[in-house]
Design goal:
heterodimer; A: alpha/beta; Rossmann fold; CBS-domain; six-stranded mixed beta sheet; four-stranded antiparallel beta sheet; 17 helices; 16 strands; 40% helix; B: mainly alpha; MetI-like fold; 2 domains; CBS_dom (chain A)
């Protein structure tokens, strides 16, 4: 847990005092990722760097796991906080192994232990230890370097991590991959993380909570879904963008939205059964055909079922698209638009049909949250 | 490849030239006359190298700590002006420095070593300072951020990353030093300058060459020695010549 209590930083500049962070009070619960988000110069980086005293606070306190850090020795404090910066900052004079083991060495671990830890971390970030440990940072790609940067921060297993735009310097394709890897790691590691970003999409993807900063003030601190559904004021709203309703699609998985109620036919049933089952379920266009393991194999269009006689197995169309249970709604919506469909069948990990997701359900979900918010606001008034 | 052919041809030409020059030196008796000075040269080379070693060694011992000190954040207000003073120091010709140090310290080895020390000091200090200042702020932030104390940061991160530049300074400084030692003869410190200046005074070109050629060879040898040391001592990750 990281708790900031009235943390303030005033810089003395030739033009007079500038308040970079103004009485920031917030709390990041254990095991969560908190994204500090805002335009440049808003105080998000200053706030982050006051936690490990790269920038000394003018006033206010930082608590880590309930302990006031004000009286802790600076080096001691920093060694127990993982720190990742945008420029990566691997030491070019050291091998990858030396880079990763810097903090354990500072903490006085014995050799066998930190060597083993380096190999463990390399496996965790999916880089082959024997191939990489003896190489130098300049011999690695940007993406690999930043993975090492993350590994170095994790080396001494600190409970808390600070990340300053860690994936900002990486090309978009690699960035998405590293973000996914990092989230997967975080599921096991459960670190308490403060993460600076200026990219709203990254914030929504990575954050358990998002703190929006503006001109040294904490404007809004909420969960991504709440933030998108209910921005506090015009600034937050404009920062989130006109398409914020669409951004919420990222946050919902098919699993949470799929309706289990779906009518199907088997290949050896005849087309009239298919037609009547369509009517029973009220499907206007078509019905799914599944095999004996309940895997979708095709669709029977209503037009075919009405005008032709025979068995389903002889008259089906191929499936244009399928949604996985772990896909997010953004991907599903994209598939629907691409294939001009108003619904998609959903399958589980083994490819078995387990429900469907409709465009109506998606719009209803996005809309319902707004309606609830509106009702609440009216009630407050 | 035409370029390789050109290179090959040039190399061949050079070998032929060296060979012809060798034959000429041998045939005209110049070689024998030069070898006449061999015992002098041997004695003076040792003296020459001592002067370089002592003045250069002292300069390294003083210049590197000085450069480190000036690069510290607490010194930021004085650093630039101190570098300016040192810069002015180098614009004074070495001969003048030697003359000045002679007028304070008298004749002999001590004023010579002092003069050479002053001339050698600046390139090393400047490169140490510039090398340390050139270490990227991101590296310094990373080092502090993961909990290195300032002294650990200096030795584990800043110096290794500045080492290549520092060695470049040492290389320049020592090469200049070896080339300047002959002037020390003028204030009575010996060295190969004895043959060079005496040769000039006596209109004896061979005597002058007997001093000048070993001086040139020594400068090349010292340069190569420092370059080799840098090649070995600078970590592979920050060593452009080992990339």
């Amino acid at each position: 847990m990281i708790r900031l209590d009235n943390l303030t930083k005033v810089f003395d500049t030739p033009k007079g005092a500038v308040t970079a962070a103004d009485h920031i009070t917030m709390e990041v619960p254990s095991g969560e990722i908190c994204i500090l988000l805002g335009p440049s110069g808003c105080g998000k980086t200053t706030t982050l760097k006051m936690v490990n005293r790269i920038i000394r606070p003018t006033s206010g306190k930082v608590f880590i796991n309930g302990e006031d850090t004000t009286d802790l020795d600076t080096q001691e404090l920093r060694r127990n906080i993982g720190y990742v910066i945008q420029q990566i900052g691997l030491f070019p004079n050291m091998t990858i192994e030396e880079n990763i083991t810097v903090v354990p060495k500072l903490l006085g671990w014995d050799k066998a232990k930190y060597k083993e830890r380096a190999r463990e971390l390399m496996r965790m970030i999916a880089l082959e230890p024997d191939a990489f440990l003896k190489r130098y940072p300049s011999e690695l790609s940007g993406g690999q370097q930043q993975r090492i940067g993350v590994a170095r921060a994790l080396a001494a297993d600190p409970p808390v991590m600070l990340m300053d735009e860690p994936f900002g310097a990486i090309d978009p394709i690699n960035r998405a991959v590293i973000q996914d890897e990092f989230l997967k790691m975080q599921q096991e590691l459960n670190k308490t993380i403060m993460f600076v970003s200026h990219d709203i999409d990254e914030a929504i993807k990575m954050g358990d909570r998002i703190a929006i900063f503006r001109a040294g003030n904490l404007e809004q601190y909420s969960r991504p879904d709440d933030l998108l559904a209910n921005p506090k004021d015009d600034f937050v709203e404009s920062f989130l963008g006109e398409d914020r309703a669409l951004k919420r699609l990222n946050l919902v998985k098919v699993r949470d939205m799929a309706s289990e109620d779906i009518g199907t036919v088997a290949p050896d049933e005849d087309l009239q059964t298919a037609l009547s089952r369509m009517d029973d379920h009220g499907y206007p266009g078509s019905i799914m055909m599944v095999n004996d393991r309940h895997q979708p194999v095709g669709v029977i269009p209503r037009s075919v079922a009405r005008t032709t006689r025979g068995y389903c197995r002889d008259h089906f169309d191929t499936l244009p698209a399928i949604a996985q249970l772990d896909d997010d709604l953004r991907k599903v919506a994209s598939l629907m638009f691409a294939h001009d469909m108003t619904w998609l069948p959903c399958v589980d990990e083994e490819g078995r049909l387990c429900g469907q997701i409709t465009q109506r359900a998606i719009t209803h979900h996005l809309g319902s949250r707004y309606r609830v918010q509106q009702v609440e606001t009216v009630a407050e008034v | 490849m035409p370029v390789q052919n050109m290179k090959g041809a040039l190399r061949l030409l050079l070998i032929v030239f060296v060979f012809v020059a060798g034959v000429w030196v041998q045939a005209s008796g110049t070689l024998d006359e030069l070898l006449f000075y061999l015992p002098d040269v041997q004695y003076l080379v040792v003296q020459h190298l001592w002067l370089t070693a002592i003045s250069g060694g002292l300069a390294i011992l003083v210049a590197i700590p000085l450069g480190i000190m000036l690069s510290r954040p607490s010194m930021v207000r004085f650093a630039e002006s101190a570098m300016q003073v040192l810069n002015v120091g180098t614009t004074i010709p070495t001969l003048a420095v030697l003359a000045l140090s002679m007028s304070f310290l008298g004749i002999g080895t001590v004023p010579a070593v002092f003069g050479l020390f002053v001339a050698t000091l600046l390139p090393i200090t400047r490169n140490t300072y510039a090398g340390l200042k050139g270490v990227s702020p991101a590296l310094r932030e990373a080092a502090s951020g993961i909990g290195m104390a300032p002294i650990q940061r200096l030795f584990k991160v800043e110096l290794p990353n500045a080492l290549y530049v520092i060695f470049a300074g040492i290389r320049t400084a020592l090469t200049i030093n070896v080339g300047t030692v002959p002037l020390a003869f003028l204030i009575g410190a010996g060295g190969l300058g004895e043959l060079i200046f005496t040769g000039i005074d006596l209109y004896d070109p061979l005597m002058m060459l007997a001093g000048a050629i070993p001086t040139a060879l020594l400068a090349i040898a010292v340069d190569a020695l420092v370059a080799t040391t840098a090649f070995v001592a600078v970590p592979r990750g920050v060593n452009p010549s080992r990339a």
